[in-house]
Amino acid sequence: MSTDGQELRFEQTRLDQVMIEIDNQIITLQQNVTDIKTDIVEIRRNFWDDVTVNFDDAHEAAETYASMKQQAEVLSERERTHRHAQKQLKTLHRLKLSPYFGRIDLLEDGEVSSEEIYLGIASLLDDQDEQFLVYDWRAPVASLYYDYSPGPVEYETPSGTISGKMELKRQYIIREGHIRSMFDTGVTIGDELLQEVLGKQSDSQMKSIVATIQREQNRIIRNERSRLLIVQGAAGSGKTSAALQRVAYLLYRYRETLQAEQIVLFSPNPLFNSYISTVLPELGEKNMQQTTFHEYLEHRLGSTFELEDPFTQLEYVHTAMHDPHYKTRVTAIQYKASLPFMRTIDRYLETLGIANMRFKDIRFRDRTLIAADTISQRFYSHDPSLAIPNRMRLLAEWLLGELKEIARRERNKPWVEDEIELLDNEDFHRVYKKLQKKKRMSGATFDDYEMERKLLAASVVNEHFAPIGTEVKRLGFIDMPAVYQQLFELAKSERSTLAVEAAPVQWDAICSHTLEKLSVAQLSYEDATPYLYLKERIEGFHTNTSVRHVFIDEAQDYSPFQFAFLKKLFPYAKMTVLGDLNQAIYAHVRADASLDQFSAFFGADETETIILTRSYRSTRPIVELTRRLIDGGEAIEPFNRDGQKPTLTTTATPKEHATKIKERILELQKSGHRTIAVIGKTAQESQAAYDLLAGELPIRLIEKETVSFEPGTLVIPAYLAKGVEFDAVIIYDASAAQYSREEERKLFYTACTRAMHELHLFSLGSISPFLGALPGEFYVHEQ
Ligand SMILES: Nc1ncnc2c1ncn2[C@@H]1O[C@H](COP(=O)(O)OP(=O)(O)OP(=O)(O)O)[C@@H](O)[C@H]1O
C-alpha cells in the first residue's frame, strides 16, 4: 500500500531536517579532525622540545624516560581520537547517501505514546546527543523491523524482554536527499522494495542487504546462542549475504571485545573473496580475515610438496574418466575425506608411540652428525605414556644439547681452519673486539693469538650450525613424508597390525597409487588434510586460540575430515557453516551426505539448524527451471520476480554453436546487462570456449588464479562461478556429452543458478538428460 501525499510531505520534511543535521555534524567534525591533525603534527614536530633529556645519572635517566613516555601517551591519545573522528566522519558521509531505509512506530507497554524509530546503516543522534534521529539496524529494537508485521511485538534487550505494539512499519528508498518511494508494509519486508533491489543489474561486487533482510535471514544474523549454526539454503537464498551481515552484527554487538581479526571466513575461491570484499566496508566495518581452505594448506605444506589444488582435482574428476586409475582415485578421494580414515590415522598414531616413528639423519657437510637410529632410540627411551608432541619436544631439547657438544668438537676440524683463512677483515675485527671485551671482563691475560683462533673457530662453526639448530627447533628431524608414506606401506602389507577402518575394496590399489605419488613428492588434494592432521598430531596442534568466530561458506564442499580438522584448529570459536548440498561439486562429498553431519561435532544442544528455502537471486522463470534439475527442488520457493523464460538452443556443428552463442552475447550486451557469463563445465571447456569467442568479442577468461573480475563478458568454469552471480548466464554446452552422469548434475545446477535475470542454454548435439527430463514449458526451445 503506498501512502498518501501528506504523509510523503511529512516524511520529506523530516528527511530534510535530518540531512541538515548530518551536514552540520559533518562540518563540526571536519573542523575537529583538522584541529586534531594540527595537534598531532605539532606534537610530532616538537616531541623532543617538550621532553627533558638528561642521562647524567640513573635518577635523571628515569625522569627522561617518564617524560618521553608521557609525551608519547599524549601523542597516541590524539592519534586515537583522530582515527575515531575519521571513522565517524566516514559514517556521516555514508548516512548522507541514504540516512535511513525503514521506520517502525512502537508503542511500548505502559507508555501513552508511540516512538517513531528510523533505521539506517548507523546511529545518528541529534545535536544535543539526546534523541536518536536514526537507529543502527543492529540495535536490539531494530530486530522488530525484520521479525514482525504491525501488531503485538516483543524484542530482547540486554536488560530483558520489551513488549508492545507496532503501529506502523514503513520502508523508503532515499537517494540524494529525496524520498524516491515509500511503502507501508505488511508481513514480509516489502515485496516492492525487494523487487526493486533484485531487479537491478548486477555488479562485480556483492551488495549489503540490510534494508531488506528477511525474517529467516535475521535469525541467522542475530543468532547468539549456538556454538554451531548450520544454514542449509537453496541457491540464491542469501546464505552468503546473511553470513556477511552476521559478521557486521557481531562486530557491533560485541564491539568492546570483538575485533574483525578474530573472525575468519573460509570461502570457495579467491575470486569470491574479492566479490564479497566491499560488503562490510559498505556497512562501516572492517573486513574479517578471509581465506580458502587451500590457501591454508598451502601455507602449512607448500614447501614440502608439490601440492595439488582442489580445482585440479575437480578438473581430473570431470575430464579424466578414461584414465585407468580413475575409479581408484575417485574412491580414494571419498575414503580419505572420511572419519573412518581419520580414526585409522589415530590408530596409526598409537602404534607410532611404540615403534616405527621415522626420523631423518641430522647431517652436515656430507656427514651424519646424529643418525636417525640414534634419534629414534632416544625418542623411544622416553616414557610412552607421554603424548607424542611432548616427547618430540624433549627430543628436540636433547638434540640441541648434543649439537652443542658436536659443535665444540667441530672447532678443531680442518674445514674450520680453511674457512678462517677466507674470513674478511670485518670478521676479524668483530672477533678482536669480542676478545678485548673478554679480557676486560676477566682481567686475565692470555695468549691473544691462541684465543683469537678459538673465537674465530667458534664463530665459524656457530654460523654453520645455527640453521641446523633452527631446523631442530622446528622439529625438522621428523621425517614427516616418510611417516605418512609408511601409513600406506603398513596398511597395505598383509601382516599389518593396523586395521584400516571401513577400507574400500580398492584399498590396495589406493595404497600403491598414493605411494607412487608420494615418491615423487606430489601430494594430492585428498591427501593434504590427512597429511597435515598426522603432522599436527605428531608435532602438536597449531591451534588458533584468538579466533572467536569461524564462517564456512559453501560448507557442503568440506569433508567430515576437513571439518573435524577445522574444529581442532579453532578450539574457542563458534562456527557458522552455510551450504547447499545440491551444489556439492567435489567428489569427496558422498551422495547421501547432509549438512547435519556437522552437528555431531558439537552435539545437538549446541547446534542449531536454519533452513532457507526462498531463492532471491534469479527470476521466477529461472528458478522454475533450475529447481527441477535436482531432487527435492520442489521445496525451493522462487521469489516472485518476473522475467524471460530460459532459452535452449541446440546446434549441430561447432561452427554453428559458436556463431549462435556470439549472436546471443551481442544481444545481451545490447540490452544493457552489465555482467554476462559464459559458463563452462571445466577449465578445459572454458578455454575452448574462450578460444572460439575471444577473436570477435571483448571477453575475459577467468582462471583459478584470477582474483577479481570487472563487469563485462567473461568465460568461467562452473566451479569458479560458485557463490558469484551474473545478470545473464550462457551455459556453453548443456549437451548430454557434457552433463549426463549423476556426478555432473550438481555442477550443472550450480552453473544454471548463477543467473539473475536471463539464462540461455546451448547444446551441441543432443541435450543433457537433466534437461530432457523437464517438461518443455519451462524453457523456450530455439533452433
Ligand atoms: N533479503 C535480501 N534482500 C535483498 N537481496 C537479497 C536478500 N537475500 C538475498 N538477496 C540477494 O540474492 C542474491 C543471492 O544471495 P547470496 O549470494 O547471499 O545467496 P547464497 O545462498 O549464498 O547463494 P549460492 O549458494 O547460490 O551462492 C544476492 O544478489 C543477494 O544480494
Automatic annotation (TrEMBL):
Q: Does the keyword Transmembrane apply?
A: no
Q: Where does ATP bind?
A: G233, A234, A235, G236, S237, G238, K239, T240
Any one GO molecular function term: DNA binding
**Classification via InterPro entries:** DNA_helicase_UvrD/REP, HelD_bacillota, P-loop_NTPase, UvrD-like_ATP-bd, UvrD-like_helicase_C
Keyword list (alphabetical) reads: ATP-binding, Helicase, Hydrolase, Nucleotide-binding
Presence of keyword Nucleotide-binding: yes
Q: Which residues form the UvrD-like helicase ATP-binding domain?
A: 212-619
Recorded superkingdom: Bacteria
Q: Which NCBIfam families match?
A: HelD_BACSU
- Spell out the protein name for this chain: Helicase
- Source organism per entry reads Brevibacillus fluminis
